[in-house]
Amino acid sequence: MEIADLIGNIGFPAIMCILMLNMFKYMLERFRENLEKVEMQHASDIESLKKALENNTNVMQKLIDKMGE
């Protein structure tokens, strides 16, 4: 069936609802993909921050130990 036949048989509002649902599904899939990318990047950033904090803690402890000598 062609679009003109569908519009004639089902009606314009029904066709628009179907098209909008398809568009919504597409947008939701893209949003989920982007969210997964952001979550992975965030996890990587947090891991980098943990390592930096541990390194800073180690350096501070060494400085405190040197000052105590």
Please write out the topology.
Blueprint: H1 3-10, H2 12-68
Helix pairs in contact: 1-2
Major β-sheet profile: none
Rg over CA atoms: 28 Å
| Regions with little confidence, pLDDT below 50 for 5+ residues | none
Strand content: under 5%
The total tally of domains equals 1
Helices, by number, come to: 2
Mean pLDDT across the residues is 91
Through-space gap between termini: 88 Å
The number of distinct β-strands equals: 0
Describe this structure in words.
94% of the residues lie in helices and 0% in strands. By secondary structure, it is mainly alpha-helical. The chain has one domain (3-68). It is rod-shaped, with a radius of gyration of 28 Å. The termini are far apart. The model has no long low-confidence stretch (mean pLDDT 91).
Give a quick rundown of the structure.
With 69 residues, the protein is an all-alpha fold. Helix content is 94%, strand content 0%. It has 2 helices and no strands.
Which descriptors apply to this entry?
mainly alpha, 94% helix, 69 residues, 2 helices
